[in-house]
Design brief:
Shape: rod-shaped
CATH superfamily of the largest domain: Immunoglobulins
Oligomer: single chain
Structural class: alpha+beta
CATH class of the largest domain: Mainly Beta
Distance between the termini: 104 Å
Largest sheet: 5 strands, mixed
Helix content: 25-40%
Number of strands: 11
Strand order of the largest sheet: 6-8-2-1-11
Number of helices: 1
Number of domains: 2
CATH architecture of the largest domain: Sandwich
Strand content: 25-35%
């Protein structure tokens, strides 16, 4: 073997070493990202599994033109009241916004909705474009995507 064969072999080995040192960090970072994403999916699935609540009633007071929705947290996960979404007759109402007021077991200063506590949401008729009345469907959706629905009943004070 001559010098040219040995030099060619050395160049090929150096090229393979350079290719491996470039490929390994890319592969390791890709594997880390896939593992992190899979962990996030599993965490969200566990949160959905531990989330349970029910809309106990939805009433519309004709005297005050106010919709009141009561929901009880029956799960083991604490929920944030302001992160919930209320759909009234196919219209989105931001529970954490100016169009609705919330109380948790009568306390308007807390946003944390823990297990066995009741969330009360009040929405004035003037804050929605939907005409609220007997038979209007309301759907409450929490942060993890779990939802429950009820039908509005009218009351007069």
């Amino acid at each position: 073997m001559g010098v040219s064969v040995s030099a060619s072999t050395a160049i090929i080995v150096a090229g393979l070493f350079f290719a491996f040192t470039t490929f390994y960090p890319v592969a390791a970072n890709g594997l880390d990202r896939v593992s992190d994403a899979q962990h996030g999916v599993n965490e969200r699935a566990l949160e959905r599994q531990n989330t349970d609540f029910s809309v106990t009633n939805a009433t519309y007071d004709t005297a005050t033109s106010t919709l009141t929705v009561n929901a009880t947290n029956e799960g083991s996960i604490g929920l944030v009241a302001a992160d919930a979404t209320l759909v009234v007759g196919n219209e989105y109402v931001d529970v954490g916004g100016a169009n609705a007021s919330t109380t948790v077991d009568g306390d308007a200063d807390t946003a944390l909705w823990l297990g066995d506590e009741t969330l009360t949401i009040e929405v004035a008729q003037g804050d929605t474009t939907t005409t609220i009345g007997e038979g209007t469907r309301v759907v409450l959706v929490v942060e993890s995507g779990v939802r429950d629905a009820a039908t509005v009943t009218e009351v007069s004070a």
